[in-house]
Amino acid sequence: MNGRKTVLVVVAHADDMEFLAAGTVARFVQEKGYDVYEYILTDNGKGSYRLQPEELVATSAREAVEAGHVLGLREVRLEGYADGNLNEVHPVTLRDKIMAMIREIKADIVMSWDPFAPYEDHPDHRMVAMATLDAASFSGNPLFHPEHTHPPHPVTEAYWFAKHPWNAELFVDIATTIDKKIEALLTHDCQMILTVDMLVQEAKALGVEVPALENLDAEGHRAVIAAGVRAYCETTGLKAGMNYAEQFRYEKLGMLDKLLGTSFVIPDFPL
What is the three-state SS of the chain? Predict the structure, then answer.
């Protein structure tokens, strides 16, 4: 496949993409000129130890849109399901909504949590992963959701987030976009405060002292997150001989290359 592609990133929470894939997304936008859309399914309403849900939902939504601007996304769409409760939404309903967006924007690539990753601890991630796979697998079939406004459209590639190393097979060099990744991630200020609050709570539970987490001022969480993400991406890059990298399980979703032995679908990054 040649030419300009359209990418749909489907996540459970604002900041999911930035933690695991924003460097790659930035390369899609900046280097490839691809249109990238993000679809966030929950309202992030449980993502704070400090804010009440109503304030948190509004703050997180605003920050998600701002992060999208940092990365140059075409759109950040917020579905607004209750955070932590996606398992209460019927899988067909989730498939329907994701498939409708695939058809609307004519997505060539989907990016999301890996539907077959072992030991994923968050139920929202698991629900989004399988719903995205189902939607992308059948978005070209006219008998699935014929009520949709837009016509069927097949997805040909998937980049599944590889949070753990055992399902990583594609490493994307993000040396040129690591700073953009961190900038976008830090735009999710309420979520970065939550992340540091979780680290502090864990340290207290273990009875250990972590100097980097002590006596933080109002902006201290930003330095902790930036240093941690940079170190994580550096460690990931070492596996592939890169300075900084993100890791994925890459999958061709169509049948043409598999059945006929052709190579029409060409990954944008070397496997």
Answer: CCCCCEEEEEECCCCHHHHHHHHHHHHHHHHHCCEEEEEEEECCCCCCCCCCHHHHHHHHHHHHHHHHHHHCCCEEEEEEECCCCHHHCCHHHHHHHHHHHHHHHCCCEEEEECCCCCCCCCHHHHHHHHHHHHHHHHCCCCCCCCCCCCCCCCCCEEEEECCCHHHCCEEEECCCCHHHHHHHHHHCHHHHHHHHHHHHHHHHHHCCCCHHHCCCCCCHHHHHHHHHHHHHHHHHHHCCCCCCEEEEEEEECCCHHHHHCCCCCCCCCCC
For the stretch 234-255, pLDDT in tens is: 999 999 999 999 999 999 999 9
pLDDT for the residue numbered 262? 96
Least confident of 22-26, 114-118, 135-139, 166-170: 166-170
Segments making up each domain of the chain, as ranges = 6-254
Which residues pair with residue 42 across a beta bridge? 81
What's the CA gap between 90 and 97, in Å, rounded? 11
Pick the CATH number of 6-254 from 3.30.1450.10, 3.40.50.1370, 3.40.50.10320, 3.40.50.720: 3.40.50.10320
Return the closest-CA partner of residue 41 out of 21, 17, 70. Answer: 17
pTM: 0.97
> Tens of pLDDT along 88-144?
999 999 999 999 999 999 999 999 999 999 999 999 999 999 999 999 999 999 999
Listing from the earlier edge strand, what are the strands of the sheet with 6-11?
75-81, 35-42, 6-11, 109-113, 157-161, 245-252, 170-173
